[in-house]
Fold each of these.
Amino acid sequence: MSSFSVNTVLVQAYQSLPSGPGVYLMREAAGRIIYIGKAKNLKKRVSSYFQKTDVGPKIQALLSVVRHIDYTPCQSEREALVLEEAWIKKFQPVFNAMWKDDKSYPYAVVTMGEDFPRLYLARKKQIPPGALIFGPYPNVSRIKGLIRALFRSGRIALRPCRWDFSQSKPLDPKKINSCLYYHTGQCPAPCAGKINLRDYRKIAQKAVRLFGGNRPRLLAGLRREMKASAKKLRFEAAQKIKNEIEAMEHIQEKVMVSEVTAAELGGLYNPERAIRRLAEVLGLDKKPRHIEGFDNSNLFGTNAVASSVCFLEGKPNKDHYRHYRIKMAAGIDDFAMMREVVGRRLMRLVTDKEELPGLLLIDGGPGQLSAARKAMDSAWLFRAAKVPGTIPSTVPALVSLAKREEILYLDRDSGAKPQKIRLPKSDEALKLCMWIRDEAHRFAITYHRKRRSGGVAPP
């Protein structure tokens, strides 16, 4: 191992990267792409190249010629994976070719080519003919846990064994008698005639529908079970169901990858262009150079917390990140929690006479947006009562971003119906809003986990 000095320009470049999922591209001095990678956390992944003084010969060779880093944020790790694969195939960077290996992310496989299909995870080279596949899935442990939960709960009761048998080729009775799954009731036992072919394949079709996208009814049922468990104070059971829900949400993450030309790769994320586009989309008089995002987090109404994050000139400014313990809102009331945290942040800005943001971005839909509007109105009334005539002439614009649908709701007038704004997933204004929303969510979740684990002193 040998020591390698890091280019200070590159250090500044990776320090400004977002903490969410995305794809990064490393270029040489002439601008040619020499390496493409994906990350669940762009900043953490790219910084790992530069934070070690002793590096291996492969990394040293790469870093010796890297002069610029581009990136594009993605909605999910899964989208980043698909985009990375597409771009590597299209641009064939030299270092990707040098380091190519046989590793790949797994797919969910339903072996519909068999009389009695199985459901399991497999990598692309291991998939049998006639099978239906879904994926790939970067979060392997989550998908493994989901399949395990589907089997154990009986929601998808397919055989977990690998025995080779069919209607015309019955399984040896000795193997049936020695099967642990059969004796413990963990299998519908088609090999022993406990279920007929037609009924068994109906279960397999159910698995296909679940992984293929038909999940709303099952998710709704799981959410009801989770709430019922929480009401009975069975928090461990509720947490297990919540993990199952999160795994299902992982498999339904949408992947939005479009064809990208070499010219478009010249500047994947340009902060100035993004805030200019956002001002255009929202109809703002000025570019929102100071944006603050808000989110809250709780587990069945306990340890409720919230966060506010700050973006200046289209980039995160962590000196102005804040987290809050919810004090007033009781139970699972997202609207009351949002009103409290936005109100507390604005009251602080008003009291300290600090510069107000040009835009407040709320994680949620019209309900959360309305709560934030009420908090803003209260803050201005407080300021006017304390110092008459001091209601600011320019107040922040208010916008919320709904999860999954990725729809913006704009409301700058108290009492007015929010304006619904749909943008393509490739729009830079939407990508910036998603980044802010996801950063607020990440910051709130991190604080919530500390509270639950006892890492933060109780109030």
Amino acid sequence: MTRRNRPSSGAHSGAPFTGAFAPEPDDDEPKSKSQRKRDMHALQALGVELEALPKDRLARVPMPEPLAEAIHEARRITSHEGKRRQMQYVGRVMRGLDDDEVDAIRRALEGFKGTSKAETARLHLIERWREMLLRDDDALTRFLAEHPEVDVQALRNLIRGARKEQQLGKPPRHFRELFQAIKTALDAKDGQQPAAGANGIPAGNADDNDQPDQEP
């Protein structure tokens, strides 16, 4: 009588391993073509963001020297075709970075975006204060209550001068200086060191504001 072979268990059965005997996943498994393409486009977009940064922010982004040189070269090129080719080169350089280097660049860019949102909100606050001060005399009382260090007379002069400029259609010199005075006062309250006088009026402008009714 023919004896039927039984499949053996374990490694000889051909059955998948389970539990503690399951093999570790292969982290080095090649990426799909579509995933590699998405990663390439993401790195290219990062390069575009870097090239568009203001000079002071670009200097604060941690990056290898070859990438920094490629970005600076792209910023110097003015022709459309030349810049396009250079940005392609930037993308190739970025594809050679390791994950930690790319993550550091991404964190720096995200930090700048958060800072930009805060700066935008602050500018809107300054603009709202300026609108209220020009529209409502009671707003000055509220502003001085929050910022008692401000030179009251200098601020009044700026407000009067800005109102007259609006009425007569004159250049908005006092209007702009009022914005700077409000900004200085807000910076002082927040503990920032303003580059202006402690009275809340930009340095060098106080004398100009003593006679607000004169032509700017």
